[in-house]
Amino acid sequence: MATGKCLCGAVTFETSGDPIATAVCHCDHCQRQSGGAFSVNVVMHESQLKINGELRTYEERGENNDDVYVRRKFCPTCGSPVVSELAKTAGVLAVKAGLLDDRSGVKPTVEVWCVDRQPWVSLPGMAVSLDRE
Ligand SMILES: [Zn+2]
Ligand SMILES: [Zn+2]
Question: Looking at the 3D structure of the chain, how many domains does it have?
């Protein structure tokens, strides 16, 4: 089990079991949401995550504004991104690794959306590098 919380502490969570993967996402939207160069995501089934506290949701939609493809959930008080739901893989969540209380064991082995990767970013230990998610 792992525990985590947002910056202000209004949202806490617990995870159970082993994650499906730990993935770095270089996409433009993750750069903008995080304010950093990429996001680090612990990918798990929704049954492995228990959240305490209220989240707000930002829905990312397709170009014609119909299909929701990502629901980005964040703390409404401090703005920390907490978890993203990928609409096309129902039941699978991406928990933001930076919110874990112990991040020392987080070892990303997958990177996605490398088409948007900044030229000054190079990460060791990636077993899988995909151009898109
Ligand atoms: Zn917060
Ligand atoms: Zn992304």
Answer: 1
- pTM, whole model, 2 decimals? 0.93
CA dihedral (24, 25, 31, 34) in degrees, to 10, reads -60
How does residue 67 score in pLDDT terms, banded at 50, 70 and 90? confident
Distance 122 CA to ligand 2 centre (A): 16
Distance 5 CA to ligand 2 centre (A): 21
Residue 55 in any domain: the answer is: yes
By residue range, what is the domain housing residue 121? 2-126
How far is the CA of 83 from the CAs of 27, 41, 105, 120, 127, in angstroms?
16, 8, 19, 26, 23
